[in-house]
Specification:
486 residues, Aminopeptidase, Alpha-Beta Plaits, 31% helix, Peptidase_M20C
Length: 486
């Protein structure tokens, strides 16, 4: 299946991407890909370093005639988001990604593709391997755990890198030059509760919300995509208000940086309400489908009879939980007052797990303004603490402030206009890039971000444009030629 990928142009890049995608590389489980990248660097006879946290740095001297140029760092992250369709049988721990060509797009077979940020990694690998591409002194920085905490960037120490300019290859529109990004913080609410024996006169049901698109909780948070956790809670709230529905279990969403696509709950309802409850859930599901039909045409709400669960949540805790989830903000909190159409602050209610007397709710709050990030985090904290949860705010990382006067921005802006006859879109983004964190230890390093067009990142609909990758590759090669002198 991946052989047709290797035949695509530029072959140097696509072949490295295929090699990389054969290696399992989930966030926080990067042992195999770290070893793969170290073997790659040493096989080329290049200085290869693994730092204390697992980042891999490969150094390559300048090509002939480029020795007087400013040394650069080319940076991408090794890890990828692991998501699959619920009917896809796939083991991310042992299997390589199965890729296919669909018109102008490369996709995966029912899973995430790993183009985020595998195409950036493959680009750097192709340049390291080539004896023909002109480039200045080069340090390749492959970071780990970008998707679930940016601990690789956070663990990178000052003084390790010598480059003056950092090229981050993690932007997902080929006409965009990234000059800034949002910071983020993980908000996690937990508590325990007493379980009660389920009365015999009740019936068991499983309520499932699925068929949503999902996607990137930063770049796509403004698109109006459905959040399966919020939709399911709406149904649970309605079922309790009208029929005394009692919750046994909830399992919704997965990763913090992915808009949740699927959620389910096991509940109990008085047998006397069977017909009315089933009709109400059908009507409520139809109402929500109508509300979201433009963005979520495949949304499904399924209510099916199951064996009566043995236990249910304590009633007071259940009431507090459903109200807190209703009150907790999800989506855009504030748009930027300074940059048109840029989301400033947002939250993703990413994961809800209720089982065996334990509640855990995981959110990712993002903002380009640190005070606004904490304002929203405290808003969430307040809602969850009112229902008895303990709330932790962890993994705080800074945003990346734009520098509109940097020399590397001028290089990219001029080169893009010369090559394509129009100006690139210079912008900050609402995703979390590693530039802000790296810059905290390298404050004098100029930074820029760019990349090929990738759609649907963090979901099984992730796809990369073949024509865009060709355009981007040519752009990379020209940028390397135009790096200014020291």
């Amino acid at each position: 299946m991946n052989s047709e990928i290797r035949a695509l142009e530029p072959k140097a890049l696509w072949n490295k991407f295929a090699d990389l995608n054969a290696v399992p590389r989930a966030s926080k489980k990067e042992e195999q890909v770290i070893a793969f990248m170290k073997d790659f660097g040493t096989s080329l006879g290049l200085e290869t370093i693994e730092d204390e946290v697992g980042n891999v740095i490969i150094k390559k001297p300048a090509s002939a005639g480029m020795e007087d140029r400013a040394p650069i760092v080319m940076q991408s992250h090794l890890d990828m988001v692991h998501q699959k369709n619920n009917d896809t049988v796939f083991d991310f721990a042992t299997q390589g990604i199965e890729m296919l060509v669909d018109g102008d797009w490369v996709r995966a077979n029912g899973t995430t593709l790993g183009a985020d940020n595998g195409l950036g990694v493959a680009t750097i690998m192709a340049i390291l391997e080539s004896n023909e591409i002109a480039h200045p002194p080069l340090e390749a920085l492959f970071t780990i755990d970008e998707e679930t905490g940016m601990t690789g960037a956070q663990g990178l120490k000052g003084g390790v890198l010598e480059g003056n300019i950092l090229l981050n290859l993690d932007t997902e529109e080929d006409d965009e030059i990234g000059v800034g990004c949002a910071g983020g913080i993980d908000v996690t609410a937990t508590r325990t509760y007493e379980e009660e024996e389920t009365p015999e006169f009740k019936l068991g049901y499983k309520i499932t919300v699925n068929g949503l698109q999902g996607g990137h909780s930063g770049m796509q948070i403004h698109e109006g995509l459905g959040n399966s956790n919020k939709i399911l809670n709406r149904l649970l709230f309605d079922g309790f208000e009208n029929f005394g529905l009692r919750i046994s279990e909830i399992d919704g969403g997965s990763l913090r940086n992915a808009i949740p696509r699927e959620s389910k709950a096991i509940v109990a309802v008085d047998a006397i309400h069977q017909e009315a409850f089933e009709l109400e859930m059908k009507l409520q599901g139809a109402t929500i489908q109508e509300e979201l039909k433009t963005m979520e045409p495949d949304l499904k709400v399924t209510v099916e009879a199951v064996e009566l669960p043995e236990t249910i949540m304590n009633l007071g805790v259940q009431e507090g939980l459903t109200r807190a989830l209703y009150a907790a903000h999800n989506g855009v909190y504030r748009m930027s007052a300074d940059i048109p159409e840029l989301v400033e602050t947002s939250n993703n209610i990413a994961r809800v797990l209720v089982k065996d007397g334990h509640i855990k709710i995981s959110c990712l709050t993002r903002s380009s303004v640190d005070s606004s990030k904490w304002d929203l985090a405290n808003t969430l904290r307040s809602a969850f603490e009112l229902t008895g949860c303990e709330v932790e705010c962890t993994g705080d990382y800074p945003g990346w402030a734009p520098n509109m006067d940097s020399s590397i921005l001028k290089v990219l802006d001029t080169t893009y206009q010369k090559m394509y006859g129009e100006k690139a879109h210079v912008a900050a983004c609402h995703a979390g890039l590693e530039c802000g964190i790296i810059g905290s230890n390298y404050p004098d390093m100029e930074m820029i971000s760019f990349g090929p067009t990738i759609k649907g990142a963090h979901s099984p609909d992730e796809r990369a444009s073949i024509s865009s990758v060709q355009k981007y590759w040519n752009f990379v090669l020209e940028i390397l030629k135009e790096i200014p002198k020291k």
